[in-house]
Write a structure and sequence with these properties.
The structure holds three protein chains of three kinds. Chain A contains three helices and five strands. By secondary structure, chain A is of the alpha+beta class. Chain A has a single domain, classed as 2-Layer Sandwich (Alpha-Beta Plaits). In chain A, the strands form two sheets. In chain A, strands 2-3-5 form a three-stranded antiparallel sheet. In chain A, strands 1-4 form a two-stranded antiparallel sheet. The longest helix of chain A is centred in the N-terminal third of the chain and has 11 residues, at 6-16. Helices cover 48% and strands 14% of the residues of chain B. Chain B has helices at 57-62, 69-84, 90-118, 122-143, 163-189, 191-197, 205-210, 216-219, 235-238, 250-274, 323-335, 343-349, 354-358, and strands spanning 4-9, 21-27, 30-37, 152-153, 156-157, 289-298, 301-310, 317-321. In chain B, helix 3 packs antiparallel against helix 4. By secondary structure, chain C is of the alpha/beta class. In chain C, strand 5 (65-67), helix 2 and strand 6 (90-92) form a beta-alpha-beta unit. Chain C is globular. The chains are: A alpha+beta, B alpha+beta, C alpha/beta. The interface between B and C is large, with 41 and 36 residues.
């Protein structure tokens, strides 16, 4: 029977100081591959609509005749399915997340 | 017979991260019967399969559970791959195994933290979750997501890990393994923790089998049953034996999970050593047809994916039987005869994941 | 990958077959219901030493009474309440019968209703 084993952990914890980051004063470090939000380089886009069809959460609307590409940021689940299928590679995944919002909003891009 | 009282437990309770309700029939402080009710968070995800094509549904399957998300996605892919007769490339199989084991480590660390919290040891709770954070960082670095990996795909995996990265991960995990063992020793050797867990909620071997327990719950009762032994993904090539304890009490369940942490690190190491260069996915054409039950071992136990397809892009039926659903009946048997004060810890020892049970 | 057998049986044989599995020491893995265009399928699955065995019964509609197997395998009561609540299967004599209150869904027997496959994805 061992008693007070946990004291070791408590003392260690006192000496070490916090392991957490002081967010939001210290910005969070993201990794190279983090899936944040979808970015589009609208000049390269050919408005084929493949991203709209492959999007599992139906967040993307592509209007070919108006040359409009629209994404509902709160519907997007950051799965990067659109980035994978894009034939001209105009879509990319940012490591930062989309800004917080209490309302549904859409980001529209027009070429 | 003394007076009977009915005490409602949940759906909101400090130890419960998710809603389950139990009606506890008490005689003084002793529980004589427990009646569960779930259904607070039923989402109908199984029905959604009729509206989403089978490739899109991978993303839905991953979101059934936030903790074992990768294994959900993986098992769904396994079911569809079997229907479509797809051979997954070897490297993808190993990557799947590595990610499965990483999610097992992070799930078990989460469970250890919650258990420490339930018996009132906040510091240990914090330490377990601190370690879990490092594992989540590895996961984010390799897949891009912290809990929703999004890397399972029908026909393989979506991302590859470079050999240098793999070595780096292995080195990191080896150093965390020491810390895990240290935290594990607090759970297993400390007398206060032992008092709280030993001899509480004993589930005999016969009961465990008859009531259909799965996962650590079953293995802690002395039954050697681990679906990973069937050799899906690369488990057939790494060679390991299920972790079995015989006592059947809460302490044994805790011990099984701590020993599995250790085992998972070993499995990852073997995978890294055995992996060869190669493709990580193959192109999928055609539509699934037929019916199949895919099974895999989650941190909580065996998960079943039943898929039935008729050769169109929509599956006819996709059914998920999650480990928590199977573990509810053994939980009721364990609760019978325990003290009211032990109920929270007993509910936690099955590692409940209610929203995953209700889909 | 795995050994897996699915046998079709009639409703009358169900209890005897399930009892035989119990005596041989099989574990009840799951019970599920599948809605097909004209029939409903019930599957009772068992496992022993990683061998998987499933019994299938076919029902014409939900009015057919299905005997409960919860007297043989207690854990079946959850699955039987589930197929009752989601598909409206008439299961007789469940050990713990919630009488339709197991899943508090807005639509009763929701899984038994027709849904239109969304051909073109709409964006509301």
């Amino acid at each position: 029977m061992k008693f007070l084993l946990m004291v070791k952990s408590v003392v260690k914890n006192l000496v070490r100081g916090p392991v957490t980051e002081r967010y939001p004063f210290v910005p969070k470090k993201f990794f190279k591959g983090t899936r944040g939000q979808v970015l589009i380089e609208i000049k390269k886009c050919i408005f084929c609509g493949l991203c709209q069809r492959k999007c599992p959460s139906q967040a993307i609307v592509v209007t070919k005749d108006k040359k409009n590409w629209e994404i509902d940021r709160l519907r997007c689940v950051s799965c990067a399915a659109c980035v994978d299928v894009c034939p001209v590679k105009c879509l990319a995944m940012d490591t930062k997340y989309a800004p917080c919002s209490d309302k549904r909003y859409k980001d529209a891009f027009n070429a | 017979m003394s007076k009977r009282t009915i005490v409602p437990f949940g759906p909101q309770h400090p130890v419960l991260p998710e809603p389950i309700h139990l009606d506890l029939v008490l005689e003084d402080e002793k529980v004589v019967e427990a009646i569960p009710s779930i259904g607070f968070v039923h989402r109908g995800l199984e029905k959604l399969v009729e509206k989403r094509d089978f490739i899109d549904f991978t993303y839905v399957a991953e979101r059934i559970c936030g903790i074992c998300s990768f294994i959900h996605g993986l098992t769904y892919c396994m079911a569809v791959e079997e229907l479509m007769k797809i051979e997954v490339p070897e490297r993808a199989q190993y990557l799947r195994t590595i990610w499965s084991e990483l999610s097992r480590i992070h799930s078990h660390l989460l469970w250890l933290g919650l258990t420490a919290d339930a018996f009132g040891f906040e510091n240990l709770f914090m330490q377990s979750w601190r370690l879990r954070e490092y594992i989540l960082d590895i996961i984010e670095e390799t897949t891009g997501g912290r809990v929703i990996f999004g890397s399972a795909k029908i026909g393989g995996v979506r991302r590859d890990i470079t050999p240098e990265k793999l070595d780096e991960i292995l080195k990191k995990i080896r150093s965390y393994q020491k810390e895990m063992l240290e935290i594990g020793s607090y759970f297993l050797e400390d007398s206060t923790v032992k008092h709280r867990l030993q001899g509480i909620g004993i589930l005999s071997k016969e009961d465990a089998q008859a009531l259909g327990a799965v996962g650590p719950m079953l293995r802690a009762s002395g039954v050697s049953m681990d679906i990973r032994m069937m050799g899906y993904a690369a488990y057939g090539k790494v060679g390991f034996a299920p972790v079995v304890e015989t006592a059947g009490d809460s302490y044994a369940r805790c011990k099984v999970r701590i020993r599995e942490l250790d085992q998972s690190v070993d499995i990852i190491e073997k995978c890294v050593q055995q992996m060869k260069e190669g493709p990580v996915e193959i192109k999928v054409t055609g539509f699934p047809n037929g019916e199949f039950f895919a099974r895999s071992e989650q941190p909580r136990g065996e998960v079943i994916y039943y898929a039935k397809a008729n050769g169109t892009k929509f599956l006819q039926r996709m059914r998920v039987r999650t480990p928590t659903f199977a573990n509810i009946t053994p939980l009721l048997s364990v609760l019978k005869g325990c003290q009211l004060a032990d109920v929270p810890i007993l509910v936690l020892t099955i590692d409940p994941c209610i929203s995953c049970a209700e889909r | 990958m795995t050994q897996q057998t699915i046998t079709e049986i009639s409703i009358g044989d169900l209890l005897n077959k399930v009892r035989a599995f119990k005596y041989e020491g099989w574990r009840l893995v799951q019970i599920c219901c599948t809605k097909l265009p004209d029939v409903l399928e019930l599957q009772y699955s068992f496992d022993k030493d990683y061998v998987f065995n499933s019994l299938k019964i076919v029902l014409k509609d939900t009015s057919t009474a299905v005997p409960s197997v919860s007297g043989i395998y207690l854990s079946a009561f959850l699955y039987e309440n589930e197929i009752h609540d989601l598909f409206g299967i008439n299961v007789q004599g469940i050990a713990v019968d919630y009488k339709g209150e197991f899943y508090r869904t807005q639509v009763k027997h929701g899984f038994n209703q027709e849904v239109q496959p969304a051909g073109e994805k709409s964006n509301e």
